[in-house]
Amino acid sequence: MDSIRGVRGYLPLAAALLALMTGSALAGGTLRIAMTASDVPTTTGAPDNGYEGVRFLGYPVFEGLVLWNLTSADKLAEIRPGLAERWEQDANDKAKWIFHLRKGVKFHDGSEFNVDAAIWNLDRYYKKDAKQFDPPGGAVAQARNPFVAGYRKIDDYTIEISNPRPLSYFPNMLPYMLYSSPAQFEKSGSWAEFAKSPSGTGPFKISEFKPRVSVTLSRHEGYWDTGKVAKLDRMILFPMPEATTRLAALRSGQVDWIEVP
């Protein structure tokens, strides 16, 4: 439960960012943000730079079976359905969870999200002999969620995930595990190449990536949740680890929003 409590300290910040992205007062246009990160977080769907990376290059671009409800910046976030529209514990074995995936969801590259894509991503994180196994991403995923003991396909839109023991809070661990496009990985051939042209299912897609300089996110017009299509046209994220540099960038008009301190 420590990891659940620990992450909630940053969720109000993520909610504030979400309000900036979706608020009608900022409809259209470009929002330029100076992050405290020392580099552009990885763009593969398994962002580094801790929760800073998840906040900026995780949730806006990639999604999990379960998401945080970030509609309010003044209270702790609860979970809500994401790529899974509902879930329940197996009636006969409480160490197993059944997730019913949302139909009609497509990755930014146009490929379909289904159980095969979900299992492919779980193999990415947990199966060391899989072609797509991602050692850095797998290390982060397994540290944040060490409770995935197994998984199997029930049908095209139903997956079973098993735990080492019954865990009532297991769905709360799933917002940290984000899903990337298997088709785009196969086209790219490696995670290093995938990072140059990523594909997730989120409300923004990565349209330009300049290592160590910036990353540009553009509104995904085909986002599956029509009520949460981004209002902004674009966001440009700049890594600026020094507080004085961020403040100077804000005062000079180089950026519109900075993280403090």
Task: Describe the SSE topology.
Elements: H1 2-7, H2 11-22, E1 30-35, H3 50-57, E2 66-68, E3 79-81, E4 84-90, E5 93-101, H4 115-126, H5 135-144, E6 150-155, E7 158-162, H6 182-188, H7 191-194, E8 204-210, E9 214-219, E10 234-239, H8 243-252, E11 257-258
Parallel strand pairs: 1-10, 1-11
Antiparallel strand pairs: 2-3, 4-5, 5-7, 6-7, 8-9, 9-10
Explain what you see.
- The protein is α+β, with helices and mostly antiparallel strands and 261 residues long.
- It has one domain: Periplasmic binding protein-like II (D-Maltodextrin-Binding Protein, domain 2, 3-Layer(aba) Sandwich), CATH 3.40.190.
- The protein has helices spanning 2-7, 11-22, 50-57, 115-126, 135-144, 182-188, 191-194, 243-252; strands at residues 30-35, 66-68, 79-81, 84-90, 93-101, 150-155, 158-162, 204-210, 214-219, 234-239, 257-258.
- The strands form 3 sheets. Strands 8-9-10-1-11 form a 5-stranded mixed β-sheet, covered by helices on one side. Strands 4-5-7-6 form a 4-stranded antiparallel β-sheet, covered by helices on one side.
- Strand 4 (84-90) and strand 5 (93-101) form a beta hairpin.
- The longest helix has 12 residues, at 11-22.
- Mean pLDDT is 91; it is low at 1-9.
